[in-house]
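Technical annex, item 7. During the second reporting period the consortium partners agreed on a shared format for inverse folding records so that results from different sites could be compared directly. Each record opens with the tokenized structure and is followed by the designed sequence. A conforming record, contributed by the partner at site C, is shown below for reference.
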């Protein structure tokens, strides 16, 4: 959990995940420490795997810029489960063509 720095956690969000601004301030860690630990854990990885990975990479890169932390490890080869599993989620249209459906991660995991 990240310690808020210049933002508050909206009440609507806290109702969903249960983390209030107060809890995050008291129990969270500084973003730069979390990012350093994250990249340390990635050092031996040859491949990044994630669901909707390009979104996550964009957010992490933005936070690395803000904290002046090198994000080069995000350039490693990657496997995006959302994109690479679309072959299993092609739904027929009325005109005979197919449309790709992107079910959420939980539904996709259950279906696979």
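Designed sequence (site C submission):
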């Amino acid at each position: 959990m990240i310690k808020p720095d210049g933002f508050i956690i909206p009440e609507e969000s806290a109702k969903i995940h249960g983390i209030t601004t107060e809890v995050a301030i008291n129990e969270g860690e500084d973003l730069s420490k979390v990012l350093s630990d994250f990249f340390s854990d990635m050092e031996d990885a040859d491949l990044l795997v994630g669901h909707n990975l390009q979104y996550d990479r964009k957010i992490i890169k933005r936070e690395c810029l803000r904290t002046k932390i090198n994000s080069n490890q995000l350039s490693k080869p990657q496997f995006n489960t959302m994109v690479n599993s679309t072959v299993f989620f092609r739904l027929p249209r009325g005109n005979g063509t197919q449309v790709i459906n992107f079910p959420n991660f939980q539904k996709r995991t259950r279906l696979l």
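The radius of gyration is 18 Å. The beta strands are 48-50, 78-80, 90-92, 98-100. All partners now use this format for quarterly exchanges.
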